[in-house]
TrEMBL record, chain A:
Family named by the database record: Belongs to the GTF2H2 family.
VWFA domain location: 61-203
GO terms under cellular component: nuclear speck; transcription factor TFIIH core complex; transcription factor TFIIH holo complex
Taxonomic source organism: Cyprinus carpio
Annotated protein name in UniProt: General transcription factor IIH subunit
Start and end residues of each C2H2-type domain: 359-381
Keyword Transcription regulation: yes
Pfam families xref list: C1_4 (PF07975), Ssl1 (PF04056)
Compartment annotation: Nucleus
UniProtKB/TrEMBL annotation, chain B:
Enzyme Commission designation: 5.6.2.3
GO molecular function: 4 iron, 4 sulfur cluster binding; 5'-3' DNA helicase activity; ATP binding; damaged DNA binding; hydrolase activity, acting on acid anhydrides, in phosphorus-containing anhydrides; metal ion binding
Residue stretches in coiled coil: 178-220
Catalytic reactions on record: ATP + H2O = ADP + phosphate + H(+)
Name this polypeptide is given: General transcription and DNA repair factor IIH helicase subunit XPD
Native source species: Cyprinus carpio
Length: 393, 672
């Protein structure tokens, strides 16, 4: 199939039933049921998370493996799977560092039965995003190799300290994998090293991925469409629960304050930032910045690992943002609409309550609709009703 | 848990029950109450076996005088093992619930190698064995003749029961058989003369027994202890072995003469078909062999072998076969005989009802059940019995886990069909290739593709190779092919499963009516899609088939076309049914022939497939199929847990007892 010239024009593309997504199923069978199941799963997810004190692996080392095989040229995501995936990945990287300031990420691509490291494990989003932007122009050829790419990731991850959470996320578009050896052996090794492997499938459920994720304790999902893809990807932004056997340890961390020096200040001298040492493209001399409390090396942005003394530098707001992972908002109680005797409008969006069930905050007893319930738990992480009562009281 | 089915307390060894299982048991109970026969169709993977076992066992316990024994017949050894496994579970559950030590005796007879005839079979409450023990006259006589009348007989996976009956009444004789028979006769002769010198009394004793012994059999039969042997009708057994073959030497001489006659018949150069009476007339004219001694051939031989104390009966298989042939041909006038120039001698019985008649006649309830028995009404017709219940059950599903699609056209709008006139058409072959290629790119893990015959498969695969289609397919998946060689096929199957397991993905090309299509399940990832290339009609030019069709038309008023379509569709349903083996499983069923869209074909599919076949899935092009399949596979890949099934397709006891659930259950069974 790949001898075919690039299928750029829409009318040259494959036959698609785009109306299928909007179609209402009169028999109420397939789509409605699956959606219902999905919705239940979504709720269950945060219900589970809200379950008391769960230890989370806050310090994560994550390798993302991106399939760049022939099947990534498929146009069922617009404009094609590769472009769409890379775009979402950029967003993912940003979100990831936003929520996990003391974590690192690395990217691996696989095509033509080989695996290639796009970026090494590092804590700086800019470098990854630049690499992802460059990868859009790459070609997609041959078959992927799950074995080789997992192996590459494993070689780095196995040296990571035991208190960190070691994870691999595979974005797998192809339905086949060309492996040089028995992958089940590798799965055993990954399991022994406590590396969690999760997979997001772009086409269908592949057996080996099911086994891989089940054995290593990861999750396996297959996308339905682009928005579902994004949703699934965002699930991996949140830190996973730490395995009970992982070690605890204290980590030294620096909280440098941003020093703003004005030109009028006589003592201020322009200096180079340490992070610009190896990149020649950006302008070097600046006045202000973050100074490492241990060795006084200067950086222009956080979070970063100090190049001189190896101290992890973060800002206090970063840590605060990770806070809600540890103390998630309690799940709201679900009750059928008929049983509710109050004014039928949602506390958050002020819309009328029309769905078959409503959600009540256990603390402030305010009532919310399904959409707001999800929004509050997924994005806000605090109950607007409680906030209001706090202020008024 | 404990169920109450119309007043009968049934112990069910699982915590959950499928609604259709409940419905199935209900029908079964009614059949037993009426003491009649039943035809029940329920999809595989919905727990047919355990429903059957738990209901019948409960029935036995509740009415020990009405039903004394359960005879469970299945087809293959793995299936028998599965039944035994379920039975063990049920018995454990009984023991746990009632606290009483199990007083049930169950017996499983697996392969012929382990054939064991112990008097205990008489007292066993449950007997599990292969079809042949009941249907094959050669074995039935040994194993099953002492089963009591008040037994319930179950034929599981019975969609091919008519063929099994015909096979059991047919004999195949090649030139090699005759040659081996010749040596057998010589050995016999030598043994006889040796024994005559050393122990002549033994032979005399046998002679005496043959004269006297039959009287005893007569008495036994009158007292209704035996299941009548389908080969030897009662009236024959009541006669004594004719004098001309009573002594050992005479009998051997007789066999020799018969053998010479058969050999002479093989020396022809064209195919001859004749009926049994014609054959008998000819043999009488040429070598003066009468009909009567021929009838006793099998019995006489068995007696002789026993007298001579021959340990290894397997050595004498050739002569045993010939003697069976002699008995069959002289007993049933409905048979047909074929002689060909390849030294191929075939006696074929056209009527499956002969072999099964004693079973229906003798036992109070006979249940015929399978995943694919549609259309239900044809089985009673060809097997010549009157069922009291005929029902087809659907599968209740929390999600639509099967997706039947009928592909009728290629992207170039050329009709896809394996019709004889167009099957060699280049465009058709290419479209079939494209279909497989496109599917190989979107279906994960395993695909099984069925062709209508080995020759057709070879032609198509060769043509695909020339067009480079095979090479393209191999980028997506490995290709394995079923051949007529059993060892090769099992090797291919093993490698196929390995490739499905480790993520490389594989395609198995096989043939409808072959070994793969009948006995092997492709659960979960071993079969995510089944593609049926063409309609698997039986080879219509075969003389045996022609004779059979003629017989069906004359005797049962079944039109040729109806039977052929029925036969083709039951095989197609069997093939596609390989992919779905339970409720958590899912799979695509692709019928690649535009003829499937016609009402006469579609209507003959089992109901549980038909109900998912909407107007939107008929006569699709390849592109449309790909889109629908992609959508389906993504939907099915979403997480699916047991809780999602609960209350819909999986019930607890409380849910089962609710009023509207019982109403829903009533709709599951459809009476034919």
């Amino acid at each position: 199939m790949d001898e075919e010239p690039e299928r750029a024009k829409r009318w040259e593309g494959g036959y698609e039933r785009t109306w299928e997504v909007l179609k209402e199923d009169e028999s109420g069978s397939l789509k409605a049921t699956v959606d219902d199941i999905l919705f239940q799963a979504k709720r269950k997810r945060y219900m589970f998370e809200g379950h008391g004190q769960v230890r989370l692996g806050m310090m994560r080392h994550l390798f993302v493996i991106i399939d760049s095989s022939r099947s990534m040229e498929d146009q069922d995501l617009k404009p094609n799977r590769l472009t769409s995936t890379l775009k979402l990945m950029e967003f993912f990287v940003e979100e990831y560092f936003d929520q996990n300031p003391i974590s690192q990420i690395g990217i691996i691509t696989t095509k033509n039965k080989r695996a290639e490291k796009l970026t090494d494990l590092a804590g700086n989003p800019k470098k990854h995003i630049a690499a992802l932007k460059k990868a859009v122009d790459g070609t997609c050829v041959g078959e992927p190799s799950l074995y080789n790419s997992l192996n590459v990731a494993m070689q780095t991850l196995k040296h990571m300290p035991a208190h960190t959470s070691k994870e691999i996320l595979v974005i797998f578009s192809s339905l086949t994998t060309c492996d040089p050896a028995n992958i089940y052996e590798l799965i055993k090794t990954l399991n022994a090293l406590k590396i969690r492997v999760s997979v997001i499938g772009l086409s269908a459920e592949v057996r080996v991925c099911t086994i891989l994720t089940r054995e290593t304790g990861g999750s396996y999902n297959v996308i339905l469409d682009e928005s579902h893809f994004k949703e699934l990807l965002m699930l991996h932004v949140k830190p996973p629960p730490a395995s009970s056997s992982s070690e605890c340890s204290l980590i030294r961390m620096g909280f440098p304050q941003h020093v703003i020096a004005s030109i009028s200040d006589q003592d201020a001298k322009p200096s180079f930032s340490m992070s610009h040492l190896d990149s020649t493209s950006e302008p070097g001399l600046t006045l202000g910045g973050y100074f490492c409390p241990q060795c006084r090396a200067k950086y222009t942005e956080l979070p970063v690992e100090c190049k001189v003394c190896g101290l992890t530098l973060v800002s206090a707001p970063h840590l605060a943002r990770s806070f809600h992972h540890l103390f998630p908002l309690e799940a709201f109680q679900e009750t059928p609409l008929e049983e509710y005797e109050g004014e039928r409008f949602c506390e958050a969006c002020q819309g009328e309550l029309k769905d078959k069930s409503i959600f009540t905050c256990q603390a402030c007893k305010k009532v919310f609709c399904v959409e707001c319930d999800l929004f509050i738990h997924d994005t806000l992480h605090c109950c607007p009703g409680c906030m209001q009562t706090d202020r008024t009281s | 848990f404990r169920l109450n089915i119309e007043g009968l307390l049934v112990y069910f060894p699982y915590d959950y029950i499928y609604p259709e299982q409940y419905s199935y048991m209900l029908e079964l109970k009614r059949t037993l109450d009426a003491k009649g026969h039943g035809v029940l169709e329920m999809p595989s993977g919905t727990g047919k076996t355990i429903s059957l076992l738990s209901l019948i066992v409960a029935y036995q316990k509740a009415y020990p005088l009405e039903v004394t024994k359960l005879v469970y017949c299945s087809r293959t050894v793995p299936e028998i093992e599965k039944v035994v496994e379920e039975l063990r579970k049920l018995m454990d559950y009984y023991a746990k619930q009632t606290g009483v030590k199990n007083d049930f005796l169950a017996l499983a007879l697996s392969s012929r190698k382990n054939l064991c005839i112990h008097p205990e079979i008489l007292h066993a409450n449950i007997v599990v064995y292969s079809y042949h023990y009941l249907l094959d006259p050669k074995i039935a006589d040994l194993v099953s003749k002492e089963l009591a009348k008040k037994s319930v007989v179950v034929f599981d996976e019975a969609h091919n029961i008519d063929n099994v009956c015909i096979d059991s009444m047919s004999v195949n004789i090649t030139r090699r058989t005759l040659d081996r028979c010749q040596t057998n006769v010589e050995t016999l002769q030598n043994t006889i003369s040796r024994i005559k010198e050393t122990d002549a009394a033994k032979l005399r004793e046998e002679y005496r027994r043959l004269v006297e012994g039959l009287k005893e059999a007569n008495v036994a039969r009158e007292t209704d202890i035996y299941l009548s042997n389908p080969v030897l009708p009662d009236e024959i057994l009541q006669e004594a072995v004719p004098g001309s073959i009573r002594t050992a030497e005479h009998f051997v001489g007789f066999i020799k003469r018969f053998l010479e006659y058969l050999k002479a018949r093989l020396r022809i150069h064209h195919v001859v078909q004749e009926s049994a009476p014609q054959f008998l007339k000819d043999i009488y004219e040429k070598v003066c062999i009468d009909r009567k001694p021929l009838r006793f051939c099998a019995k006489r031989l068995r007696s002789l072998l026993r007298t001579l104390e021959i340990a290894d009966i397997a050595d004498f298989s050739a002569i045993t076969l010939i003697s069976h042939f002699a008995t069959l041909v002289s007993t049933y006038s409905k048979g047909n005989l074929f002689v060909t120039n390849f030294g191929f001698f075939l006696y074929s019985c056209m009527d499956p009802s002969i072999a099964i008649k004693p079973v229906f006649g003798r036992f109070q309830s006979v249940i015929i059940t399978s995943g694919t028995l549609s259309p239900l009404d044809i089985y009673p017709r060809i097997l010549d019995f009157r069922p009291v219940t005929m029902a087809s059950f659907t599968m209740t599903l929390a999600r639509t886990c099967l997706c039947p699609l009928i592909v009728g056209r290629g992207n170039d709008q050329v009709a896809m069909t394996s019709k004889f006139e167009t099957r060699e058409d280049f465009a058709v072959i290419r479209n079939y290739g494209n279909l497989l290629l496109e599917m190989s790119a979107i279906v994960p893990d395993g695909i099984v593709a069925f062709f209508t015959s080995y020759i057709y498969m070879e032609n198509i695969v060769a043509s695909w190779y020339e067009q480079g289609i095979l090479e393209n397919i191999q980028r997506n998946k490995l290709i394995f092919i079923e051949t007529q060689d059993a060892a090769e096929t099992s090797m291919a199957l093993e490698k196929y499963q390995e490739a499905c397991e480790n993520g490389r993905g594989a395609i198995l090309l096989s043939v409808a009516r072959g070994k793969v299509s009948e006995g092997i399940d492709f659960v979960h990832h071993f079969g995510r899609a089944v593609i049926m290339f063409g309609v698997p009609y039986v080879y219509t030019q075969s003389r045996i088939l022609k004779a059979r069709l003629e017989y069906l038309r004359d005797q049962f008023q079944i039109r040729e076309n109806d039977f052929l379509t029925f036969d083709a569709m039951r095989h197609a349903a069997q093939c596609v049914g390989r992919a779905i083996r339970g409720k958590t499983d899912y799979g695509l069923m692709i019928f690649a022939d535009k003829r499937y869209a016609r009402a006469d074909k579609r209507g003959k599919l089992p109901r549980w497939i038909q109900e998912h076949l909407t107007d939107g899935s008929l006569n699709l092009t390849i592109d449309e199929t790909v889109q629908l399949s992609k959508h389906f596979l993504r939907q099915m890949a979403q997480p699916f847990r047991r809780e999602d099934q609960l209350g819909l397709s999986l019930l607890t006891l409380e849910q089962l007892q609710s009023e509207d659930m019982l109403q829903k259950i009533a709709q599951i069974a459809q009476q034919a």
